[in-house]
């Protein structure tokens, strides 16, 4: 199934029921006083984050979400029934944006987090509210208020502790298969990953972290080359980036240092905050380098690249160095606080 990480929907809260203008008409009271009841409140539209949902594919087919309107008031002081609320279930990590104002309405970053997207209209008043000593037979009543209505954009940002960054075929999918139970597609051609994959890396019985593998980034992505930037948003919630670089011998004459710099430059063009995230260098496909030359190849790459941060040399295919890397990542994450965005209070309802 194609991964859907963006959608546009329309949410319409229910209109409030109209108040009633009614009078008592009984056998022995032919001209009784007012007894019109109030209209019921319109239903509201809510969104709730559900960890059992992974994509926004449902919103490709259903784009209008309308809550029930309130019932009208009736005679004999009968109040109208309130409209039923409508609840939309979305993946954890969904961000709602008002398309008219560009304002972020809600960011559902925790399972079960709920937000009101559109409030139902208030019910109208019946004529019993307008009775007075000088107005014994009021015919006034009010109509129900319309419910709120918004055009919203939905954007899914997966929740992961660690994000993998690199060129197509750098070995990101192979790495996530090696360290977790995730099974993304692996093949010897570029762009085998067409959707973000999540894997849980468990270093022992009570310590684990979530890693995200996104489609490869290439030079020129800012201009739409390859898959462009459409999946880089998934790295914005991560606490650490692993930049995977293929250091295997290049029969076609490719330059891994130039490619690594190009990826980082594309990252900077996309989002300065993402560029400034903690980033480790992971040199992959060590199994394809002669064992006697590995240390020299790694040292030469680091020197040519001008890198002074953490460096790990691994082979995702045979597992060399993967265990040491995952333990180092776990130790690092244990010392880091989660981003404030993940522990914020639930967002305020739209329109308030």
Automatic annotation (TrEMBL):
PROSITE patterns the record matches: G_OBG, GTP1_OBG, OBG
Binding residue positions for Mg(2+): 173, 193
Cofactor(s) demanded: Mg(2+)
Enzyme Commission number(s) from the entry: 3.6.5.-
Keywords: Cytoplasm, GTP-binding, Hydrolase, Magnesium, Metal-binding, Nucleotide-binding
Binding site for GTP: 166-173, 191-195, 213-216, 284-287, 315-317
Compartment annotation: Cytoplasm
Signal peptide: none
Main location: cytoplasm
Keyword Lipid metabolism (UniProt): no
Domain of life: Bacteria
Domain OBG-type G: 160-334
Pfam assignment, any one: MMR_HSR1
Stored Gene3D superfamilies: GTP1/OBG domain, P-loop containing nucleotide triphosphate hydrolases
Top EC class for this record: hydrolase
Ranges of residues in domain Obg: 1-159
Function according to Swiss-Prot or TrEMBL: An essential GTPase which binds GTP, GDP and possibly (p)ppGpp with moderate affinity, with high nucleotide exchange rates and a fairly low GTP hydrolysis rate. Plays a role in control of the cell cycle, stress response, ribosome biogenesis and in those bacteria that undergo differentiation, in morphogenesis control.
Self-association and partners: Monomer.
Alphabetical list of PANTHER family matching this protein: DEVELOPMENTALLY REGULATED GTP-BINDING PROTEIN-RELATED, MITOCHONDRIAL RIBOSOME-ASSOCIATED GTPASE 2
NCBIfam families in the record: Obg_CgtA, PRK12297.1, PRK12299.1
Family: Belongs to the TRAFAC class OBG-HflX-like GTPase superfamily. OBG GTPase family.
Name listed for the protein in its UniProt record: GTPase Obg
Species of origin: Thiobacillus sedimenti
Organism phylogeny: Bacteria, Pseudomonadati, Pseudomonadota, Betaproteobacteria, Nitrosomonadales
């Amino acid at each position: 199934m194609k991964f859907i990480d963006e959608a546009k929907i329309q949410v319409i809260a229910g209109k409030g029921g109209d108040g009633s203008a009614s009078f008592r008409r009984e056998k022995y009271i032919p001209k009784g006083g007012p007894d019109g009841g109030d209209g019921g409140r319109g239903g509201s539209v809510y969104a709730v984050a559900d960890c059992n949902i992974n994509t926004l594919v449902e919103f490709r087919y259903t784009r209008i979400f309308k809550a029930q309107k309130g019932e009208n008031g009736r005679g004999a002081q009968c109040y109208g029934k309130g409209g039923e609320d409508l609840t939309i279930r979305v993946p954890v990590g969904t961000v709602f944006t008002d398309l008219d104002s560009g304002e972020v309405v809600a960011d559902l970053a925790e399972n079960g987090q709920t937000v009101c997207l559109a409030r139902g209209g208030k019910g109208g008043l019946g004529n019993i509210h307008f009775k007075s000593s000088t107005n014994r037979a009021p015919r006034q009543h009010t109509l129900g208020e319309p419910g709120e209505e918004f055009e919203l954009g939905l954007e899914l940002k997966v929740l992961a502790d660690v994000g993998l960054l690199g060129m197509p075929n750098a070995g990101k999918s192979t790495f996530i298969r090696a360290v977790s139970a995730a099974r993304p597609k692996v093949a010897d051609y570029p762009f085998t990953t067409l959707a973000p994959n999540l894997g849980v890396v468990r270093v022992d019985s009570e310590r684990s972290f979530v890693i995200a593998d996104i489609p490869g980034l290439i030079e020129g992505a800012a201009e739409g080359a390859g898959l462009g930037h459409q999946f880089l948003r998934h790295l914005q919630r991560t606490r650490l980036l692993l930049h995977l670089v293929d250091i295997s011998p290049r029969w076609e004459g490719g330059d891994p240092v130039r490619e690594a710099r190009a990826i980082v430059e594309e990252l900077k063009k996309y989002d300065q905050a993402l560029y400034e995230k903690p980033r480790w260098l992971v040199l992959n496909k060590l199994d394809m380098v002669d064992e006697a030359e590995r240390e020299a190849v790694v040292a030469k790459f680091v020197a040519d690249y001008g890198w002074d941060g953490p460096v790990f040399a691994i082979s995702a295919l045979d597992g060399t160095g993967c265990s040491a890397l995952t333990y180092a990542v776990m130790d690092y994450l244990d010392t880091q606080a989660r981003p404030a965005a993940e522990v914020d209070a639930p967002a305020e309802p739209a329109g308030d």
